[in-house]
Each structure stands twice: as structure tokens, then as C-alpha cells.
Write a structure and sequence with these properties.
The complex is a heterodimer. Chain A is an alpha/beta fold. Chain A contains 9 helices and 10 strands. In chain A, a hairpin with a 2-residue loop joins strand 9 and strand 10. Helices cover 80% and strands 0% of the residues of chain B. Chain B starts with a helix and ends in a 5-residue tail after the last helix. The chains are: A alpha/beta, B mainly alpha. Chains A and B meet through helix 2, strand 6, helix 3 and helix 5 of A and helix 6 and helix 7 of B.
Chain lengths: 244, 226
């Protein structure tokens, strides 16, 4: 079953065409890794999928909801689309639990006690049950990113978007975040991951999408993309990554 | 009489001070009333304008920016005189008290709007994006995520501005408001001795020193570990 469907998606910033007609179908439970050099448009694509960036044209349908239809309640739709950012973006004036429960209370309309219970469960899923009362400043980068993941999954999204979730982390903290993402994968979550983390793309993704200059150049299983890429740009990108 | 005795006789004349203490105390009450009104209305209006400005409606924002710049540029005394002596021309005759209150509140509104606005815009875009991505509306994000962080940043500059502008209550003297300075100067004329001014200075200290301390306390209380 198709959960997310993108067709003819373009995005222009002034004269600059960042996305040039993207078509992408993602099935329920599928894990997609999006690769590409910086400036290839992969983050912009991800941000169009929950309309943080308004596409210039094309269509984005998530879980049967047309995100670009003016009649769509975007705030309602966004609860179904979790997003995790490179820089965590936790609310520094709230505790970990406060971060996770804010949208549960304000958007999902839960009472404080209901929201707290759901929030604690979400924190437990990312292994931070004992950090509920800590503020972001008291947590390591890896812990902060796991709280950010808990904040997203507490709303029970149908799909999770990860925008370079490990790029801002010290190498020794990357593992804990990838571990949480693997657990999510086990639970059957549909995921789109923009990452420089080749290990994740290779081992945890069902499909790898390679982007260049605002277009999808090539897509396929990790085996194909990593071992036998068909396109010259993909070959040189994979080659460069693997030399480092 | 030694120089020291003459100094004490002039500025710390116990007899004169005792006589005019009730006047100064009354002036303190008026100043306090005026200050409280200016602070509450000025800051509330400034915050409201900053919130309105964040909605990003171009014509509204142009108007806000223009009025804010106007009231930041004009000396408060000029505004007081305009209101007190100018408005009667259109058949509105505000008292000296109301003129002073309105003028200072307008000035504080202008400055606090700028301070709140700076606070709001200083919050990283990622905070907005994270909140919006979880389905919070623009208003919910502003009130629950952005404003609490922005307010903390605004406390120190806001305290300084508020104190500076509130001290302007002394300008009420010009339009016959019986606040501290007004009471003190008439006491000086009546007693031919400047000691009431010393009393007035003491009264200002009693009123404004706690404000400075309160600002400092708020600053530490609103801080959180980054």
C-alpha cells in the first residue's frame, strides 16, 4: 500500500530551482535512504513532505491526505508526519518530558496526565525514561536527538522524516541514535532518512534514492546502488564516500 | 559656622525635612501610582504590538515601525506638552496626571515593542520548525515555544528601559502633577531651603532601588541551563 506519493514536485527559491520534478512512491513500512551531495535538494525534498517548505508545483499525498490542497488542515496532517532535525531543535526552556508532551496536549488534545503517560512511554522507547525531568542543556547530543525522536513518535506518526539526524553528533554518540532508528525500523515505521551515515543506508534501508541537482538520478536496493550503480554521478559519489 | 555645618544645614535640615515629609510622602504615592500605570500599560501594549507585528502583515507592520520610531525619537517632555496643551484644541482636556501617564506609556510601548520584537526574532528558526512539524499552529508556537524563550532574553534590557522611562514621571512637574519632584520643588520654594530635594532623592531611591533588584532577580530566575 502506498503511504506517501510525490509527483512532479518542484521548488524554486527565486531564480534558483532546487527541486526539478521529483516523483517518488513510498510504501507502508518502507525505509528509504536519500543520498546526494550537499545542495542536491535532498533536505528541501524532505521539508516539502510536511510543507515546512511550500512546493512551487506538483503534489504530495501522505496517508491519503493531499498536503497541497488549501482545504487540508496542515496542523492536523503534520501530526501524522514526524520530523527529526539535524540540530535537534529541542525547546530549551522545557524538560525532556515537556518537549515530548507539548504537542500531545496542544494539538492532540490530551489531558496533562494522559500526555505525561504517553510522553514517558515515548521516552522509554528511546531509552531515556530516567531523563524525563532533565532539560536539553543537561543532556548529551545523542540524548537530545533521542528526545527529539521521542517528541515525534509520541504523536504516533504514519511516517518519520529524518533530516541528517546524526550529522551534528560526536562520533561516539551516533550509535545510540542509529540504535533507536533501528528499533523504529523493527516496529515497522515508514521512514525517509537523509543522511551521510552510509552504514544506515546500506544495512537498514530497503531502498536508496540518489539525488543530484534537484532530481532523482537513480534509485534501487542498497546492494545495487552501492555495488553496481548505473549512473555516472552515483558512481563517483559512492566512490568518494567510500574512500573517506 | 563651618563649611560642613553649612552643608548639613542646607541639604539635611532636620526641621525643614520634618515639616515637608508628609508632602514628599504624598508625592511618592502619586509617583508610585503613575509609575505602576505606565509600566503595566506600556509593557502590555508593547508586547501586544510585538505579537501583532510577528503576524507579518505588511501595512500593519509599517504603521507599527513608524509609530515606534516616532515615539522613540521624541523626548517624553515634548509628548507631555503636546498632550496637555495640544489636546484641548480638539476639546479633550486631559489632566497633568493623565498627560504624563499617556506620554510615558507611549514611550515605554515603543521601546518595549522593539525589545520584545528583538527577543522574538532572536529565537532560532529551528524552534519554529520543530514546533510546527509536530502540528502546533503559528499562535501556539509563538505562545508556548518562542515567547517564553524570548521573554527571558528581554528581561535585562526591558528592566533598564522601564526604569529609565519610569523616572520620567518627574517630568510631570511641568504640567503640575504633584509627584515627588513637584512636591519637593514647591517645598524648596516655600522653605528657602533645598533639604526637601534630599528627601525627594531618598524617595526616588526607595521606589526605584527595589525595581533594580527585582530586575536582577527575574534575570536569574528566568535563566535555564543551556
Amino acid at each position: 500500500m502506498t503511504l506517501l506519493s510525490v509527483s512532479g514536485l518542484t521548488k524554486r527559491f527565486g531564480q534558483n530551482e532546487v527541486l526539478r520534478g521529483i516523483d517518488l512512491e513510498v510504501s507502508q513500512g518502507e525505509r528509504i535512504a536519500i543520498l546526494g551531495a550537499s545542495g542536491s535538494g535532498k533536505s528541501t525534498l524532505l521539508r516539502c513532505l510536511n510543507r515546512l517548505e511550500a512546493p512551487s508545483s506538483g503534489s504530495v499525498v501522505v496517508d491519503g491526505v493531499d498536503l497541497l490542497d488549501p482545504r487540508t488542515d496542515i496542523n492536523h496532517a503534520r501530526q501524522r508526519i514526524g520530523m527529526v532535525f539535524q540540530s535537534f531543535n529541542l525547546y530549551p526552556h522545557m524538560t525532556a518530558l515537556g518537549n515530548v508532551t507539548l504537542a500531545l496536549r496542544k494539538v492532540a488534545g490530551k489531558s496533562r496526565s494522559e500526555a505525561d503517560a504517553l510522553g514517558r512511554a515515548a521516552l522509554a522507547r528511546v531509552g531515556l525514561a530516567d531523563r524525563a525531568g532533565h532539560t536539553p542543556g543537561q543532556l548529551s547530543g545523542g540524548q537530545q536527538q533521542r528526545v527529539a525522536i521521542a517528541r515525534a513518535i509520541a504523536l504516533e506518526p504514519r511516517v518519520m522524516l529524518f533530516d541528517e539526524p546524526t550529522s551534528a553528533l560526536d562520533p561516539e554518540l551516533v550509535g545510540s541514535v542509529l540504535g533507536v532508528m533501528r528499533d523504529l525500523r523493527e516496529s515497522g515505521m515508514t521512514m525517509l532518512v537523509v543522511s551521510h551515515e552510509m552504514g544506515f543506508a546500506r544495512n537498514a534501508a530497503d531502498r536508496v534514492v540518489f539525488m543530484d541537482e534537484g532530481a532523482i538520478v537513480e534509485e534501487g536496493t542498497p546492494g545495487v546502488i552501492f555495488e553496481a550503480p548505473g549512473h555516472e554521478r552515483t558512481r563517483s559519489f559512492i566512490g568518494q564516500i567510500q574512500r573517506h | 559656622m563651618s563649611n560642613w555645618e553649612r552643608f548639613v544645614e542646607t541639604f539635611f535640615n532636620a526641621r525643614v525635612m520634618a515639616k515637608y515629609l508628609p508632602d514628599i510622602a504624598y508625592g511618592m504615592l502619586v509617583t508610585l501610582e503613575l509609575a505602576a500605570l505606565v509600566i503595566v500599560t506600556g509593557i502590555a501594549a508593547g508586547l501586544a504590538l510585538a505579537l501583532l507585528r510577528s503576524a507579518g502583515l505588511r501595512p500593519v507592520n509599517l504603521l507599527i515601525v513608524f509609530s515606534v520610531d516616532l515615539f522613540r525619537a521624541l523626548p517624553p517632555l515634548v509628548i507631555i506638552v503636546f498632550i496637555y496643551f495640544g489636546l484641548p484644541a480638539v476639546n479633550v482636556s486631559p489632566s497633568g496626571f493623565i498627560s504624563t501617564w499617556l506620554s510615558l506609556a507611549l514611550v515605554l510601548t515603543a521601546f518595549s515593542e522593539e525589545i520584545f520584537w528583538a527577543g522574538i526574532t532572536s529565537i532560532a528558526k529551528g524552534q519554529w520548525e520543530a514546533a510546527r512539524s509536530t502540528g502546533l499552529s503559528y499562535g501556539q508556537t509563538l505562545m508556548s515555544v518562542v515567547l517564553p524563550q524570548a521573554l527571558r532574553l528581554t528581561i535585562p534590557p526591558l528592566t533598564n528601559r522601564t526604569i529609565a522611562i519610569t523616572k520620567g514621571t518627574a517630568l510631570g512637574t511641568v504640567v503640575a502633577v504633584s509627584e515627588i519632584l513637584g512636591m519637593a520643588s514647591s517645598a524648596v520654594s516655600n522653605s528657602y531651603n533645598p533639604s526637601p530635594l534630599t528627601l525627594g532623592a531618598g524617595a526616588y531611591l526607595i521606589l526605584f532601588f527595589p525595581m533594580v533588584v527585582l530586575g536582577r532577580w527575574l534575570e536569574t530566575r528566568m535563566a535555564w541551563k543551556r
